[in-house]
What we know:
The chain has a domain at 33-98. It has two helices and no strands. It has helices at 34-67, 72-98. Helix 1 (34-67) packs antiparallel against helix 2. The radius of gyration is 27 Å and the shape is elongated.
Amino acid sequence: MTIGEGEHLSHSDAEEISEDLKPSTGLWPSKVSPLTAHNATTRRWIAMPIFWTLIGLYLVAAVAFSAGFIDVDGLVRLVAAFSGIQTLCAAIVGFYFAKGDS
């Protein structure tokens, strides 16, 4: 039905809503299959060490800077060196979490 300018839908134009319809099951299964649980565990075991290693590298750089072992230029060089590792970690984590259940 096309509505022209200045026209409005009335109650009689709307579809009837029925209370007798069964609820949708949705997109997600109600039970977690063992394969899905296995995939989640595997992804967690892959992602968490990568995440904590990257956090550890940045913490070491921050502590070294705070303790005076490196100056601002050294910190900038370290952060620039970590950018490649950070990009690789982001790609790995993104790949495993975006892969889906196949």
